[in-house]
Amino acid sequence: MKRNILSILILGAVTLTTTTSCNDWLDVLPNNEQVTDDYWKSKEDVEAVIASGYYYLRQCVPTIIKWGELRGGSIYTQNSGDAKLQDFNMTPTHSLCDWSNLYKVIGMANSVILYAPQVDDDTYYESILNSHLAEAYFLRAYCYLLLVKNFKEVPLVLQAYVNDEASFDLPKSSESEIIAQIKEDVKTALATGAAKGTYEEDWATKGRATKWALYALMADACLWSEDYDQCIEYCDLILNANDAFRPVFMTNTNDWYTMFYPGNSNESIFELNWDYSQNQTNNFNSLFTLTVSTPLRPTSRATELMKQETQTLKDGGLTEDGRMGRMLMATYVPDNGQVVAWSTSNQYYIWKYYGTDVPDITGGARAHQDANFIIYRMAEILLTKATALTMKGQGSWSEAVRLINRIRNRAGLSNFKDIDPSSADAGAQIAQLDELTLLEEILTQKELEFMAEGKRWYDVLWLGRVAGGKYKTQFISKVIEGNQTTNQQWIQSVLQDQNAWYMPIPQADIEHNKLLEQNPYYSSSK
């Protein structure tokens, strides 16, 4: 009997209770039965399977955070096991290589894509069907983009497997093939015009895939594959939209923290929801706590960046009130359970997910562990477009600087190098810049803006990959600078091999799929 990815795809496609409310969507649980072709009788059956896709994606969040942070030098772990990832010491048997929940989501999506069009239900109108398919395509494409960024090459499974008699010895597909499929999935989802801009309930507009989420995913995939024109095109579909309920970049510094508490803000494009009132908790307490043994916390280098930004705000005349600017509204310093001045402690904690015990800027505190996890928000779209414009050449740099300034100004900072792109002397100032200087500023703003949101490693890795590796040296230097748990010479040596930039394929899948080959770095040197 074939197991591992195949069994994941089969057991992941399960029958679920009918979903009609926020509670159903946020806490739907499998009945451990296969979804065969006999299952699909009504639109509610399709809804249930889609809901289970979001359920399994929520189970991925701790892994998503670790994958996206531990190698990037902003967040580090004191857990000796997980430290193997940040120290580039991974082995194929390590639990952090586990991709099973992502393939469960893919299995759900494949089942919906295959079977939803066959549902014989007079109330299952074509517009509803196409909306469901758009969600399925988004979930599949997003999971494959995560897999590409972490493993580079993985099996590309596009069929729904409903029994374990099917042959499932599949080789890895190339990165270019997977990226092409991701783009095709997004285009297919958007082609019918049925991808929603909003849902009937506010939480669903942010917690289920919309056309905005599809645009953001496509921009993400295009930047990764260095398709800058298309990246800008999809960013603009969000930035230039005039829909009444479109996502909107929040400009007020004092509103910044509301993205995380209570969440589902106007800035959000797509986030995974939890609701304690419906008995749902995210278990982020296991990642971000007030104890000395906190599993995930900012590195010393990242902490200094926070302090520098906060000092700049103070020097500019802003007064400290327990939390100030995006850094002290996203992090806090505990001292006997009370907020203390940032300057009196060297230890910062991530507030945006934990957010209990210590009051937020309004004086209240999150009472429960039910913070949402934001996957895409407007600030990322601005900085994604700024990156693409930077790579387009000097003629696009004025617009790139304008976008960077929007992020800086929202954080209470002055314009980048005091450049106002609308001023008369802006052209001469921008002519003094160079590509790397702009990219460095974008990376810095991304690091501060998205601290612990599972983004940093991919931003740093992109720098190492871009333009045939022209900034490989700078990439390695950034990794070394941020790492505080292993020997610098080791990292310098390991990262010379580009295959070491990615994780090993899980050993269990290697053993059960005779066509699946290990990442060359791990097969030759481990």
- As a percent range, the share of helical residues equals 40-55%
Counting helices, strands and paired strands, the structural category is: mainly alpha
H and E string: HHHHEHHHHHHHEEHHEEEEEHHHHHHHHH
Describe the global form.
globular
Largest sheet: 2 strands, antiparallel
Strand order of the largest sheet: 1-3
The total count of helices amounts to 22
The radius of gyration computed from the alpha-carbon positions, rounded to a whole number of angstroms, is 23 Å
Characterize the structure shown.
47% of the residues lie in helices and 5% in strands. It contains 22 helices and eight strands. It has helices at 5-12, 22-27, 43-59, 61-69, 83-86, 100-115, 126-151, 175-191, 202-207, 211-224, 228-239, 300-315, 325-328, 378-392, 397-410, 426-431, 435-449, 456-469, 472-482, 488-494, 507-512, 520-525; strands at 75-77, 268-272, 296-298, 331-332, 334-335, 338-339, 349-350, 373-377. The strands form four sheets. The protein has a two-stranded antiparallel sheet. It has a two-stranded antiparallel sheet with strand order 2-8. Strands 4-7 form a two-stranded antiparallel sheet. Helix 14 (378-392) runs antiparallel to helix 15 (397-410).
